[in-house]
């Protein structure tokens, strides 16, 4: 089993545990160098995001190498409530290759079909590729593996609808806002209650162009921190009404036991007729905004339940695309495995070609030594003719030997070929060191 993945993800550990296993970008090169240090692993890559930390390995030796990486990952986390190994999983062989393809395609994400993971896999590949010399982490096999994984991710997203539609409450809010305003560029936003969900929703809206953000919270320090992230301003709870008439999008996520925006206050403090739409996302429980406000002209009020219905409907649509995505992955895993299996024939093919080339050159040299009258041009033509004949002669046998290796029949075929061509000795599989 020449491949393995050793990791922790959102299925095996909660966020407060996962973040203990995470490697910062500055730590990743040294972590890769460490797992490559004993020579049992020929290639490696490390993916470390908020939802997963995973080492991908191409093994020269097996059991000791995997155990070494499990220890490396466990050492990254300390003082855990349970032994680190309780959170760590190991996948091997074809399962490891398939896992990488599923991760890159968004099938193994917390949010099914999320697109950010493909860029994170690409970044991990580039970090591994950047290591050189004795620390070199990516060679022939991992170049092919990660390029094919990124290609699979692209195919899944272009040939299926797995990534279509909002798949989280914040992205559902953005989807609704676009329906109301079209482009969100230049729109003004306000957040009441700077909790995690409100902050995530604001982050999504700002990424779509929302500007002039006002943040308020019972803790002014917390409001200032969130506002600072998005280049906005913070105000105290009692002052949010001052900015509301100039706001296009409002996100409410307080923990107040009663409504923060009542119909009476709204009718008193806001213009009688709103000149432009007011989009309110109330993701608080209990609700921050009285439902009657949603009946007013030009006011669009959505609750956490409305957004969750959108997310659920989109998830069902995405889920329906899983068979198509899995068929693509199954095909590409088989394709990669055939290519990798074919590498087992490469050492023999190299030996055969080298041996044949030595014979060709020896015979051409002997013949040309007896033809002193030939011009340099004619001698070059004889050289080219002999090279072309040798390539044509070897093409079919080597192609069939590689095909036999891809089909798992290389042992008998190689033994016969060694006997027929009188090629002796064996060397390591291409890509192993």
Overview of the structural elements:
With 433 residues, the protein is of the alpha/beta class. The chain folds into 3 domains: 3-162, 2-Layer Sandwich (Beta Polymerase, domain 2), CATH 3.30.460.30; 169-315, NAD(P)-binding Rossmann-like Domain (Rossmann fold), CATH 3.40.50; 340-421, no CATH class. It has 16 helices and 10 strands. A 6-stranded parallel β-sheet has the order 7-6-5-8-9-10. A 4-stranded antiparallel β-sheet has the order 2-3-1-4, with helices on both faces. Helix 9 links the parallel strand 6 and strand 7 (233-235). Helix 6 runs antiparallel to helix 13 and helix 14 (346-369) packs antiparallel against helix 15 (376-406). The chain is elongated, with a radius of gyration of 31 Å. The two termini are 16 Å apart. The relative contact order is 0.09. Residues 427-433 have low confidence and may be disordered.
- The percent range for helix content is 40-55%
- CATH topology tier name of the largest domain: Beta Polymerase, domain 2
On the 0-100 scale, what is the average pLDDT? 89
Report the sheet-strand fraction: 5-15%
Instruction: Supply Rg.
Output: 31 Å
CATH architecture verdict of the largest domain: 2-Layer Sandwich
Specify the CATH class of the largest domain: Alpha Beta
CATH superfamily of the largest domain: Glutamyl-tRNA reductase, N-terminal domain
Helix/strand order, N-terminal first: EHHEEHEHHHHEHEHEHEHEEHHHHH
Structural class: alpha/beta
- What count of helical segments does DSSP give? 16
Please describe the biggest sheet, giving its number of strands, its sense, and whether it closes into a barrel. Answer: 6 strands, parallel
Side-by-side strand order of the widest sheet:
7-6-5-8-9-10
Count of DSSP E strands?
10
Shape: elongated
Distance between the termini: 16 Å
Number of discrete domains: 3
